[in-house]
Every structure is written in structure tokens, then in C-alpha cells.
């Protein structure tokens, strides 16, 4: 499952130029991780077109374009996945882990190995810094890169099903593809009817009559199967390696089996990019918006109605379940207590899906209130996985909602809280997190969900802490990461990455002085005392300790280039501390304050 | 029971170190204690007290500290020690020992304490209060 993150290169460039840290852009990765999924089935002829450009199939080709808007928190995006009809049967198990933890560990090991090699090969400081910064983003993309279908959250459920075909395909083969997809045996917690089918007809621009043929095919698909279609105009014969070719990079969420970069004609890149944009902004999101409004009217308004407050009967499902469904253990509310899932016809499933769609559409206020509506029902049914996941996304909604205010609120510093106050953290966020982690781990043994929850929340807290210069958020982030360590879910290199996360949070920790500093003209003859009031405002020593622990795990003998950089960061941290204390630092850094690091037998010298 | 004690000068420099049964994390003891200086420096301006109980932790180890009026820090990293009161009394007596060292005309502040007598007395104190 190894996933890599090459497409973030341009974002790293931005990180460099604008003095951003990886945590400022991590929100964009998180948002992209929860983008609407679009599944793809393609005919043999359309796959042949993809093969002409070096891709295995149309799905792989499309996946190279799915990160196009990842560098922006404003722009919406979608993610392409394989069709439900092509998914292996184990994807349909209930209460399944998000990804294989063993594979995850080995992929992190490989990632550090790769970065170590790259660091050894480059001496350019900007490039080295970029590689170090990429670690946390690669780690994040691996956490969000799981492809498992989940029964208790609907982010992994596709919203659109694309059937990609060419003008050479006949209606019968499309019909067979469509029928096969429609007849896929899916569990009761997947709602196949709500996946919107859409045909994509690839038209060859080099053939004059092909566009007409495409239009004709579009009409006949509409008439025969009632399927809507979009035309994708390409020039598949333009594969000449000339000046007009361009490089596209592998998606952050793609499989490692995909080549890291692909060289394709510029016209193809422009055509597919335009198509991707059209599909996202003109098809998927307007469809979601329409659906969400409809569901809100049908599901939320009756629940919140005046009569419902007196007559609780209307709250629950009025859907009737067939005899066969009853035999599967589904009760009158649509909940199967034995296997622990809600039927897709149940109100709980529908409302959860509505909340998830709000979340994907980045309306965090509505997603929070919609999640909140379900809490009591899940508690009553003792559907623990659903409850934990619900609480998880309630907190995500709260934090992402606050984080996305970053752009609108100027960076004032001095403890700006953007609505997430200490009281909200202590009374709402922390008890909920405690509760949901207990449920994930002890009741449901879902280690990857716990991992994702801890990492994402800590990322969001770090991001907020950094943006608003508020140490309150950084402290929460560190607590979450240390809690994750105490759960002993991670090991090896992944543990080292967490140590580096903690170190980063300590590095940016900085409490403002309580009073305004009076600036005086510098006087070299004046006795310079340590400024006592500045002591204890930062956590540079702590940051150094956690880097040292990371070095111990990564092993300086195995990854010399990587650990050397971490050692330099330790020294920089302590030198920064000295500067803050008002101590003049000379170039060789052999100060008494650093003697812990340089004395005989110390770990730094040993390594 | 295990313990690592460090007396730390005003410039973060170690003045004296003693370690008893800290094998699993021996290499890291100085750094763990050093990192706890961030916390103690933060706390020392908020209160008049000299003893800071359980200010930080690492795995199953806890850290307590004592700040002298001259801003010298006594830090211990420990596991399964008897009681907080014992630690407080230990620090009190250690402070007496340190003040006596300060009074020596051959000792300058912030200098490493290499006196064998001092070391023996500190070890006696740890036996007295922690049975170590």
C-alpha cells in the first residue's frame, strides 16, 4: 500500500518561498483526503487509449490528475477509486481497519530509507529542508490513503460511478458493464442506488466524424439505459515526444505501483485537467448540493420539527424492511445488532451520509449539527463503532472549521482562540476524544481509526497553534501525540516520525511576554544580564529531547544522512534558546550551555 | 526503585550528577532532565515555592525539581520512589549541602562539584530517604 507524495512538490516550493511550515499545508492534505470519491469502470478500448500513453488503464490515468487542486484549501477536489464491482470481497467486511498496519509500518520504513538516500545525494540546503518537511506530509497522506469501504462512515463510498468508453464501443458492451455494476452484490450498508452512474465518451479529435459518433452514442445511451454522458475530447495519436510534452506526477494517495512521474503530451494534460475541473465543479459538487438540500428537507427538517419534540415516534425510521432483510437480523430501525451495521435504508445511515456529504462539501457547521443529531440514536442502539466515528468527525468538523478561519483572521498572535477556547477544549473536545478512543480501541479494536484520529487532530491543533500563536493548541497536540505513543499502536520508523511531530510542536511553542518590551539602543559596554522574564516561554530543550529520541529509533548507522540533519536541528534549537536568553552565540557553538551535547560520552558525539 | 540526580547551574551546565539503577535509559537521563528545565523555568516565576513536585514525566519515570534562591536547579528523574514528602526533605538537605559547598573558598558558583565528600553525603541522603 505504499503511497508517495510527489505532487506536493509545488506546495513545498510554496512552503519554501512563503516561509510556511508543512503543518500549514497539512490542512489541505486532510481536506483532500476527505474528498468525494468517484469510481471508474472502463471498457477495454478506452483502457487501450490509456496504454498508448504508458498507463495501465483509465483509472490510473485519472489518478494522476486528482491532486491538481491539493495546494489550496479553497478549491474542491475529488478522488478516483476502482469500481465497486471490481473491489475484492474483503472490502465489504464490517468494522474493517482503514489500512493494513504492517504494510503501513514497512512503507514508513521505506520512505525514510528513500529520503535518507536523497539527502545523501544533495547538498543544496533548500532541497534538504524540503525533504525533511516532506516527511510529515508523506506520513499524513499514508494515513489518509486507505481504500477500504467502511460501514460506519461513508467517505469511502463512491458518489459517482463513471463508465468510460470510446466511440468504437457498442451499446451492448456498455450495457454489459452497466448491468454488471448494477448487479454487484453489495452488503446492506452500501447504497448502490445513490451512486450516480455517468458515462464518459472519449472522442478522438484526429478523426473528423468521431465527435458526431460520440454525440450519437450519448443519445443512444440516454435512450436505451437512461444514462447521462459527458464527452472527453482527446487526441490519442498525439504521443510524439516533442517540445509539447509535459510531466505529470503521481497522486499523493496513489499506489506505489504507479510510476512516480509520467511524460505525456501537453494537449492530453490540458484536456484531462479541463475535464477534471469540469467534472468536479460542474457535475459532482452541484449534484451533491442538490442531494444534500433534498435530504435536509426529508430527514433533518422533520426531526427538528415542533411535532417531533412531542411525538418521538417520527424520529425513527418509517422504512419497512423485507422478510429476507429481517432474516439477516435487521430490526425495525434498520440496525443489525449481531453484525453491527445500519441498513442503507435506515434513517441513521441516511443522516450519517448527509453529515459526511456536508463534511466533504466543507460546510463544517452543518456537518457538526447533523452528526450531533445522531448521537443519542447510536448510544441507544449501542452501535459503538458508529458512535466513535461520529464523535471523531464532530471534533474534526469543529477543528477544521476553526482552522479554515485562518485565511480570514489576521495573525495577531497573543493567544487568539478562533472560537475554540480553553473551556470548549476541556468541556467538550477532551472528554469526547477520551470517549471515542476508548471505544475505538477497547470496544472495537480499530487501531488504524485511533491512529488516524490522533494524527489528524494533532495536526489540526498544531496548525491552529502555529497560525494563531496560541500555545494552548500546541499543548493539546502534544498531549494527543503522547497519548498515541502510550497506546503502543506504532513501532519503528513510524514512531520516529511521531517523535519528530512532537519535537516540531515544541519548537514552535512560544508564549508571548506579558508586557511590552522597551527597545533600547544597543550598547556593547553595558553589562548584559540574562532576561529572566523570557525564561520558560519556549520549549526548545523539549524539542531537542524528542529529536534525540527519534535519532535513537532511526539509527544513525542505518540512516546517517537523515539523522545528521536531526542532530543539526537539535543544536539549532539549543542555540535558539541561547539567543532568546540574550547570550551572544559564536560560530563554533562551543558554549557551556551546550555542554550536555558535546561532553564525552554524549549521544550526539557517539552518533 | 531508580534515581538520577543532577544539579544544574544557571547556564544549563551540569554541576553534579548521580545515577542509581537507571540502566534502561542511562544514556537519555541527562537529556530528559535537561528538557524538564523548560517546564521548571516556566513554573519558577509563577510561585514562591522552591520545590516543584512531579513537573514532567517520561515513560514511567517522573521528574521533580528544586530551585535555589540563586537559580541553581536540583532535578531528579525517578521511578517508584517512596513519597513526595521524602523527595521534598531530600531536596531540603541537599540544599544545605550545596550551601556548605558554596561557602568553600575553593569553589566558584556554576563550577562542577568534584568533592568526594559531597558525593558521599549525597549518596547517604539517597539511602536515608529512598533506601537506594
Task: Please describe what this structure looks like.
The complex is a heterodimer of chains A (607) and B (132). Chain A is α/β, with parallel strands linked by helices and 607 residues long. Chain A has helices spanning 9-17, 22-33, 44-52, 58-63, 101-121, 125-144, 171-182, 210-225, 266-304, 306-310, 323-327, 347-360, 364-381, 384-403, 422-443, 447-468, 471-487, 493-508, 540-554, 560-581, 595-598, 603-606, and strands at residues 37-42, 79-82, 158-166, 196-204, 228-234, 245-249, 261-265, 335-336, 341-342. Chain A has a five-stranded parallel beta sheet, with helices on both faces. A two-stranded antiparallel ribbon of chain A has the order 6-7. A two-stranded antiparallel sheet of chain A has the order 8-9. Chain A is globular. Chain B has helices spanning 29-43, 84-103, 116-130, and strands spanning 2-8, 14-20, 51-58, 61-67, 73-79. Chain B has one domain: Beta-Lactamase. Chain B has a five-stranded antiparallel beta sheet with strand order 2-1-5-4-3, sandwiched between helices. In chain B, helix 2 packs antiparallel against helix 3 (116-130). At the A-B interface, helix 19 of A face helix 1 of B.
The tally of strands of chain A reads 9
Count of domains of chain B: 1
Give the end-to-end Cα distance of chain A, rounded to a whole number of Å.
33 Å
Helix content of chain B: 25-40%
> How is the largest sheet of chain B built, in terms of strand order?
2-1-5-4-3
What is the strand tally of chain B? 5
Low-confidence stretches of chain A: 1-20, 407-414
Uncertain segments of chain B: none
Q: What is the gyration radius of chain A calculated from CA atoms?
A: 27 Å
Helix-strand makeup class of chain A: alpha/beta
Strand order of the largest sheet of chain A: 2-1-3-4-5
The coarse overall form of chain B would be globular
Largest interface (CB < 8 Å): A-B, 22 and 22 residues
What's the quaternary structure here? Answer: heterodimer
* N→C terminal distance of chain B: 7 Å
Can you count the helices of chain A? 22
Query: Approximately what portion of the residues of chain B adopt beta-strand conformation?
Result: 25-35%
CATH class of chain B: Alpha Beta
Total count of helical runs of at least 4 residues of chain B = 3
Main beta sheet of chain A: 5 strands, parallel
InterPro entries (chain B): Longin-like_dom_sf, Sedlin
Pfam families (chain B): Sedlin_N
Protein name (chain B): One of 10 subunits of the transport protein particle (TRAPP) complex of the cis-Golgi which mediates
Protein name (chain A): Subunit of TRAPP (Transport protein particle)
Amino acid at each position: 500500500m505504499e503511497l508517495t507524495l510527489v505532487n506536493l512538490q509545488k506546495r513545498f516550493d510554496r512552503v519554501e518561498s512563503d516561509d510556511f511550515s508543512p503543518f500549514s499545508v497539512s490542512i489541505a492534505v486532510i481536506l483532500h483526503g476527505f474528498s468525494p470519491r468517484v469510481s471508474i469502470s472502463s471498457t477495454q478500448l478506452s483502457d487501450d487509449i490509456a496504454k498508448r500513453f504508458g498507463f495501465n488503464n483509465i483509472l490510473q490515468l485519472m489518478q494522476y490528475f486528482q491532486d491538481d487542486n491539493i495546494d489550496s484549501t479553497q478549491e474542491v477536489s475529488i478522488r478516483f477509486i476502482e469500481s465497486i464491482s471490481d473491489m475484492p470481497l474483503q472490502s465489504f467486511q464490517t468494522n474493517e481497519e482503514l489500512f493494513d498496519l504492517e504494510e503501513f509500518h514497512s512503507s514508513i520504513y521505506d520512505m525514510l530509507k528513500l529520503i535518507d538516500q536523497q539527502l545523501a545525494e544533495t547538498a543544496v540546503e533548500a532541497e534538504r529542508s524540503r525533504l525533511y518537511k516532506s516527511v510529515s506530509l508523506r506520513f499524513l497522506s499514508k494515513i489518509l490513503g486507505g481504500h477500504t469501504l467502511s460501514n460506519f462512515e461513508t467517505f469511502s463510498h463512491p458518489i459517482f460511478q463513471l463508465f468510460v468508453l470510446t466511440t468504437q464501443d457498442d451499446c451492448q458492451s456498455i450495457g454489459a458493464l452497466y448491468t454488471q455494476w448494477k448487479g454487484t452484490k453489495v452488503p446492506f450498508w452500501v447504497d448502490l442506488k445513490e451512486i450516480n452512474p455517468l458515462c464518459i465518451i472519449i472522442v478522438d479529435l484526429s478523426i473528423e466524424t468521431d465527435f458526431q459518433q460520440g454525440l450519437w452514442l450519448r443519445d443512444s445511451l440516454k435512450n436505451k439505459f437512461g444514462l447521462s454522458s459527458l464527452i472527453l475530447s482527446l487526441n490519442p495519436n498525439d504521443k510524439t515526444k516533442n517540445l509539447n510534452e509535459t510531466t505529470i506526477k503521481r497522486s499523493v494517495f496513489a499506489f506505489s505501483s504507479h510510476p512516480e512521474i509520467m511524460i505525456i503530451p501537453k494537449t492530453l494534460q490540458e484536456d484531462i485537467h479541463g475535464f477534471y475541473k469540469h467534472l468536479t465543479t460542474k457535475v459532482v459538487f452541484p449534484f451533491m448540493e442538490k442531494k444534500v438540500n433534498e435530504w435536509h428537507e426529508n430527514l433533518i427538517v422533520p426531526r427538528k420539527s415542533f411535532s417531533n419534540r412531542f411525538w418521538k415516534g417520527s424520529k425513527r425510521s418509517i422504512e419497512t424492511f423485507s422478510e429476507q432483510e429481517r432474516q439477516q437480523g435487521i430490526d425495525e430501525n434498520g440496525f443489525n445488532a449481531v453484525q453491527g451495521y445500519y441498513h442503507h435504508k435506515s434513517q441513521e445511515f441516511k443522516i450519517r451520509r448527509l453529515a459526511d456529504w456536508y463534511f466533504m462539501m466543507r460546510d463544517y457547521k452543518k456537518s457538526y449539527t447533523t452528526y450531533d443529531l445522531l448521537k443519542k440514536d447510536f448510544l441507544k442502539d449501542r452501535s459503538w463503532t458508529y458512535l466513535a466515528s461520529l464523535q471523531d468527525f464532530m471534533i474534526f468538523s469543529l477543528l477544521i472549521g476553526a482552522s479554515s478561519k485562518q485565511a480570514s483572521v489576521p495573525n495577531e498572535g497573543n493567544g487568539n482562540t478562533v472560537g475554540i477556547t480553553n473551556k470548549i477544549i476541556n468541556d467538550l473536545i477532551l472528554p469526547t476524544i477520551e470517549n471515542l478512543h476508548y471505544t475505538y480501541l477497547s470496544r472495537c479494536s480499530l487501531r488504524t481509526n485511533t491512529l488516524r484520529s490522533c494524527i489528524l487532530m494533532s495536526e489540526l491543533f498544531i496548525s491552529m497553534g502555529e497560525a494563531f500563536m496560541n500555545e494552548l493548541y500546541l499543548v493539546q497536540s502534544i498531549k494527543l501525540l503522547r497519548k498515541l505513543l502510550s497506546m503502543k499502536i506504532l513501532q519503528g520508523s513510524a514512531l520516529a516520525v511521531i517523535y519528530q511531530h512532537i519535537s516540531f510542536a515544541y519548537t514552535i511553542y512560544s508564549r508571548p511576554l506579558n508586557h511590552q518590551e522597551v527597545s533600547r539602543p544597543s550598547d556593547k559596554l553595558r553589562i548584559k544580564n540574562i532576561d529572566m522574564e523570557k525564561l520558560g516561554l519556549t520549549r526548545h530543550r523539549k524539542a531537542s529531547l524528542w529529536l534525540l529520541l527519534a535519532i535513537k529509533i532511526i539509527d544513525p548507522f542505518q540512516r546517517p544522512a537523515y539523522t545528521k540533519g536531526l542532530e543539526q536541528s537539535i543544536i539549532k534549537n539549543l542555540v535558539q534558546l541561547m539567543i532568546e536568553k540574550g547570550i551572544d552565540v559564536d560560530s563554533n557553538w562551543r558554549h557551556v550551555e551546550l555542554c550536555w551535547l558535546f561532553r564525552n560520552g554524549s549521544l550526539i558525539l557517539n552518533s | 526503585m531508580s534515581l538520577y540526580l543532577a544539579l544544574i547551574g544557571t547556564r544549563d551546565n551540569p554541576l553534579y550528577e548521580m545515577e542509581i539503577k537507571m540502566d534502561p535509559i542511562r544514556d537519555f537521563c541527562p537529556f530528559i532532565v535537561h528538557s524538564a528545565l523548560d517546564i521548571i523555568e516556566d513554573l519558577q516565576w509563577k510561585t514562591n515555592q522552591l520545590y516543584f513536585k512531579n513537573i514532567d514525566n517520561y515513560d514511567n519515570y517522573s521528574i521533580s525539581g528544586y530551585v535555589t534562591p540563586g537559580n541553581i536547579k536540583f532535578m531528579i528523574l525517578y521511578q517508584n520512589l517512596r513519597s513526595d514528602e521524602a523527595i521534598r526533605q531530600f531536596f531540603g538537605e541537599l540544599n544545605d549541602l550545596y550551601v556548605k559547598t558554596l561557602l568553600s573558598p575553593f569553589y566558584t558558583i556554576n563550577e562542577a562539584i568534584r568533592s568526594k565528600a559531597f558525593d558521599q553525603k549525597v549518596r547517604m541522603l539517597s539511602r536515608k530517604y529512598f533506601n537506594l
